[in-house]
């Protein structure tokens, strides 16, 4: 076997030009596949980070049935924001911070600058957050705010779409109107503190409202509809979520960010699907190249095979020899390709890719990376695939009849 | 004998013109001017209820105003409709803010237009026909001709006699989804020849646990209604 392997190596190196071309094809293909995957990894990581640190938190606690009822009146599924509950959540290992929130809907009227006495009201969805506690759970939320934005107990921050619709200026007076917890209308005054960029393109009219103001508006003093939870290590998300679930009891439901934003998971699923198809197509093309090289090699070396058989090499050994040659080709190509892909991802990760998606006003920072599992998987696919695609040429070589092969027929 | 003959005549009668039925309906549900007191009870999904007491004033030319008395949370609030525009006056802010006609009327399952814009003759076209399931009524199938109406289409069952008194209504979005349904009952003579259902139950067909009852305690169609009550600047006074 060792002898066969060293022969295989030497045979691969015999026709250097052809081997180089084949290796180049395999390496370029794998570099491309690895590079695409690496950038995609970075993009998805950035999306995940954006969701967890920007808006959702790693997980959220609600009254049981809240998510199923979001369409009707979630305000009635509220709970007292008491220390006991927060302490229970904070006591779970891995939980680093908890922030209370209220999600509600209402309409917003800006005081007109001219003397038109009835300015337009616009419907909007609001997230009420505590200006201090929220920073510990979703610090990146502040990155969404435009420069000079003020967010405190008297200032609201309007989403891009809402701010643009109003042409809102800093410190203009904003009147929030909303049905309270019991459905009765209530209104409160606030100031516009600034605007907030959209994370996903095409976001609805939204605003961020200080929790204390929302509690007054909704007549829900001391009550909230949501606790957003930050954790130290997102790779333990599911485990921590189930511990939080156990800690808060059946009166509450706990959802991870991925359950809360299933569309983001779906987008990632589609991205993965497309990149997998591209990878498989690239791999097939590369392996067909390897198969072609091997077949050429068998046809050229008919006499040689005849000679080997004449001196006693078995059919099996001939087959193994050619398969080993394919294996060496595949392994060398994959190693080269993965080295290329790693170099590219490393350079890109060092610099970061910064871009602003169309329809969004927020820059996205992508730091590509490749996982060990992916690297091993590609290596295996290339080596195993090269052997598989060379079964036919190798079989043909092993079927040659020595007498005819020696005659070059 | 005479009654059955009459009944038979009634049952085989040709449907009247839609315009005639809707004019009658409007006269029942939204007389030209009136002063009224009403109570709405909102039944919420969690089983709780909340009662709203209000005074209603309707003026000519699509103007209406409501003063809320109860509960304490909304005392002092007022609503005003002038044509297509709706406002709510918030006493704590001393300001009038715009409302959408499609928004819920306080915490209930009526929308603002159901209460403040109850006439249909001007905004809807459609057909009048028999409904075998409710032989004492005409079934009106109405389609909005005005983009500002809060329902795209309405199915309305009104009594054949006295013509125009509603029994049931079903209210649809443009996609054909039923948003609400109403049952009208307890027809009462409020004086001055004005007869109307004094009780309306509005069911929310989206959140089906919810419904609201509107009870008309008094309706005075002869009360003098001054035009000055329907200006924005009068709100809060």
Report the helical percentage of chain B: 10-25%
**CATH level 1 class label of chain B:** Mainly Beta
- The count of β-strands of chain A is 13
The count of helical stretches of chain B stands at 3
Number of domains as seen in the coordinates of chain B = 1
Radius of gyration of chain B: 18 Å
- What's the CATH H-level homologous superfamily of chain B? Lipoprotein localisation LolA/LolB/LppX
Element order of chain B: H for helix, E for strand: HHEEEEEEHEEEEEEE
C-alpha geometry of chain B:
globular
The gross shape of chain A turns out to be elongated
Short description:
The complex is a heterodimer of chains A (409) and B (237). Chain A has 409 residues and is of the alpha+beta class.
List keywords for this structure.
heterodimer; A: 409 residues; alpha+beta; Cathepsin D, subunit A, domain 1; six-stranded mixed β-barrel; two-stranded antiparallel sheet; B: 237 residues; mainly beta; outer membrane lipoprotein receptor (LolB), chain A; 13-stranded antiparallel β-sheet; 3 helices
Q: Mind explaining what this structure looks like?
A:
The complex is a heterodimer of chains A (409) and B (237). Chain A is α+β, with helices and mostly antiparallel strands and 409 residues long. Chain A has two domains: 2-50 and 265-406, no CATH class; 96-232, Cathepsin D, subunit A, domain 1 (Beta Barrel). Chain A has 15 helices and 13 strands. Chain A has helices spanning 2-14, 16-56, 83-90, 133-137, 141-144, 160-166, 211-217, 237-248, 257-260, 262-300, 302-310, 315-351, 372-389, 391-399, 402-406, and strands spanning 59-63, 79-80, 95-110, 121-129, 155-159, 173-179, 185-196, 206-210, 223-224, 226-231, 252-256, 353-355, 364-366. A six-stranded mixed beta barrel of chain A has the order 3-4-8-5-7-6. In chain A, helix 12 packs antiparallel against helix 13 (372-389). Chain A is elongated. Chain B has a 13-stranded antiparallel β-sheet with strand order 6-5-4-3-2-1-13-12-11-10-9-8-7, with helices on one face. Chain B has one domain: outer membrane lipoprotein receptor (LolB), chain A (Clam). In chain B, a hairpin with a 3-residue loop joins strand 2 (49-59) and strand 3. The model of chain B has no long low-confidence stretch (mean pLDDT 85). The chains are: A alpha+beta (409), B mainly beta (237). Chain A binds chain B through residues 69, 71-73, 76, 107, 109, 117-121, 123, 175, 177, 179-180, 182-189, 219, and chain B through 42, 44-46, 48, 50, 52, 71, 73-74, 77, 85, 87-88, 90, 92-93, 95-100, 103-104, 106-108, 206-207, 209-210, 232.
């Amino acid at each position: 076997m060792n002898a066969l392997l060293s022969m295989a190596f030497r045979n691969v190196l015999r026709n250097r030009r052809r081997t180089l071309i084949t290796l180049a094809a395999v390496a370029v293909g794998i570099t491309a596949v690895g590079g695409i995957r690496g950038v995609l990894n970075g993009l998805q990581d950035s999306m995940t980070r954006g969701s967890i640190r920007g808006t959702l938190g790693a997980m959220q606690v609600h009254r049981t049935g809240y998510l199923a009822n979001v369409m009707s009146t979630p305000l009635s599924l509220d709970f007292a924001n008491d220390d006991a509950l927060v302490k229970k959540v904070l006591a779970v290992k891995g939980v680093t911070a908890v922030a209370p929130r209220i999600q509600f809907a209402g309409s917003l009227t800006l005081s007109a600058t001219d003397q038109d006495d009835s300015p337009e009201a616009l419907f909007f969805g609001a997230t009420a957050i505590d200006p201090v506690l929220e920073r510990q759970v979703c610090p990146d939320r502040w990155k969404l705010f435009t420069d000079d934005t003020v967010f405190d107990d008297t200032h609201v921050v309007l989403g891009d779409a809402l701010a643009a619709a109003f042409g809102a200026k800093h410190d203009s007076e904003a009147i929030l109107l909303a049905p309270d917890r019991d459905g009765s209308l209530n209104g409160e005054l606030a100031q516009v503190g600034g605007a907030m960029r959209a994370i996903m393109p095409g976001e609805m009219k939204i605003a961020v409202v200080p929790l204390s103001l929302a509690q007054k508006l909704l007549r829900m003093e001391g009550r909230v509809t949501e606790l957003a939870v930050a954790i130290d290590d997102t790779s333990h998300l599911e485990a921590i979520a189930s511990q939080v679930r156990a800690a808060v009891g059946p009166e509450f439901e706990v959802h991870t960010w991925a359950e809360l934003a299933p569309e983001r998971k779906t987008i990632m699923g589609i991205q993965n699907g497309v990149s997998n198809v591209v990878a498989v197509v690239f791999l097939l093309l590369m392996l067909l190249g390897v198969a072609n090289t091997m077949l050429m090699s068998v046809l050229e070396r008919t006499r040689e095979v005849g000679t080997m058989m004449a001196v006693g090499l078995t059919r099996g050994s001939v087959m193994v020899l050619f398969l080993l040659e394919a294996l060496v080709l595949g392994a060398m190509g994959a190693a080269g390709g993965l080295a290329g892909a790693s170099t590219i991802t490393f350079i890109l990760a060092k610099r970061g890719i910064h871009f602003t998606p169309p329809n969004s006003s927020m820059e996205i920072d992508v730091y590509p990376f490749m996982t060990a599992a992916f690297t091993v998987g590609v290596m295996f696919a290339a080596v195993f695939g090269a052997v598989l695609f060379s079964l036919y040429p190798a079989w043909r070589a092993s079927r040659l009849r020595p007498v005819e092969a020696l005659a070059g027929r | 004998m005479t009654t059955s003959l009459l009944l038979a005549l009634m049952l085989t009668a040709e449907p009247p013109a839609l315009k005639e039925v809707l004019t009658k309906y409007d006269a029942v549900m939204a007389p030209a001017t009136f002063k009224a007191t009403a109570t709405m009870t909102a039944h919420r999904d969690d089983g709780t209820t909340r009662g709203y007491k209000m005074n209603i004033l309707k003026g000519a030319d699509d103007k209406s105003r409501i003063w809320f008395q109860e509960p304490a949370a909304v005392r002092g609030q007022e609503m005003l409709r002038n044509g297509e525009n709706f406002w709510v006056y918030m006493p704590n802010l001393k300001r009038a803010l715009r409302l959408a006609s499609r928004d819920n009327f306080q915490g209930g399952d009526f929308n603002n237009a159901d209460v403040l814009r109850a006439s249909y003759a001007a905004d809807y076209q459609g057909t009048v026909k028999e409904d075998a399931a409710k032989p004492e009524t005409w079934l009106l199938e109405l389609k909005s001709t005005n983009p500002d109406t809060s329902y795209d289409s309405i199915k309305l069952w009104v009594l054949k006699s006295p013509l125009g008194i509603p029994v049931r209504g079903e209210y649809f979005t443009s996609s054909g989804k039923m948003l609400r349904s109403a049952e009208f009952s307890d027809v009462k003579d409020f004086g001055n020849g004005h007869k109307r259902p004094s009780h309306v139950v509005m069911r929310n067909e989206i959140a089906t646990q919810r419904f609201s009852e509107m009870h008309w305690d008094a309706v005075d169609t002869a009360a003098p209604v001054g035009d000055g009550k329907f200006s924005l600047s009068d709100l809060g006074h």
